[in-house]
Amino acid sequence: MAGQALSIREADDLPAAEFDERVGQPLTDFGQDDPDDLREQSREALRAYLEELAPSVRAVSVERRFELRFDGAEWSIVGYLDVEDESGDTIDVKVGAKHVTEARAGSDPQPTAYRLARRAEGRPEGRFLFHSIRRGPIRSDERCLVVPAERSAGQLVAREARIAQTARQIARCAESGDWPLSTPDGWWCSAGQCRFWRGCPGGGARP
User: Fold this and answer.
1) Residues whose CB falls within 8 Å of the CB of residue 204, separated by 6 or more in sequence, listed in order
2) In this structure, what is the dihedral angle of CA atoms 26, 27, 28, 30, given to the nearest 10 degrees?
3) Strand partners, 61
4) pLDDT tens by residue, 56-83
5) Which DSSP letter does residue 7 get?
6) Which helix (H) or strand (E) segment is 27 a member of?
7) What domain range is 48 assigned to?
8) Per-residue pLDDT tens for 15-35?
9) In this structure, which of 11, 15, 78, 97 has its CB flanked by the most CB atoms within 10 Å?
């Protein structure tokens, strides 16, 4: 954004330092993965992104906070846009063992919510693009992909209605004190993601 590129060494130092900081945090959980392997994979993923996709990006904002509020609602949705490009596109960077698929891009709620936010701000133009980077032992030509996520006006209306419905359900749970349990196979249902997990009957305290 400042018009200056990081050196290869500076770019490599960033993920290594961030990874080492996360390793030292008490709730960090790598599951069955080896931390040293993941550390090297994160470095490889960043190098690939800087070589293949980053040169085409002209960022005007990084991690910009937005607050989406609907007329008549007492609540709002807060989010952070990974990258906004000078072309008007919104870019979300995903790093994982598998690429973002077209099917996922078509159903993922994130692009829809972000398009709603930009429309509310009076900026409906531009595309939503996943910049998908695979980590791990794969061929170099499969490392990075650009996956668009198009949304129709009807999809935006449907997502707005679903958000409102979810907010009403949360309000009812808060009033009654009766909260449903998360699905046990979700990545968020774990000691490293939920501070209530250890004492939850659906988490660490399950019989």
Assistant:
1) 191, 197, 198
2) 120
3) 84
4) 999 999 999 999 888 888 888 999 999 9
5) P
6) none
7) 8-179
8) 888 888 888 887 777 878 888
9) 15
Pairing of strands 90-96, 128-134: parallel
Count of structural domains, the chain: 1
State how far the Cα of 131 lies from the Cα of 91, in Å rounded to an integer. 7
CB 41 within 8 A of CB 135: yes
Q: Which candidate, 105, 99, 176, 172, places its Cα nearest to that of 136?
A: 99
The answer for 67, left when phi > 0, alpha when psi is -120 to 50, beta otherwise, is: beta
127 in helix, strand or coil?
coil
Burial 122-154 (b: 16+ CB within 10 A, else e): eeeeebbbbbbbbbeeeeeeebbbebebebeee
**CATH code: domain of residue 46:** 3.90.320.10
Judge whether 199 lies within some domain: no
Cβ atoms of 19 and 40 within 8 Å: the answer is no
Rounded Cα–Cα distance for residues 48 and 203 (Å): 37
> What one-character-per-residue DSSP string does 137-183 give?
S--GGGSEEEEE----HHHHHHHHHHHHHHHHHHHHHHHH---PPPP
Task: Classify residue 192: in a domain, yes or no.
Answer: no
* In-domain check, residue 2: no
Does residue 17 contact residue 10 with C-beta atoms inside 8 Å? no
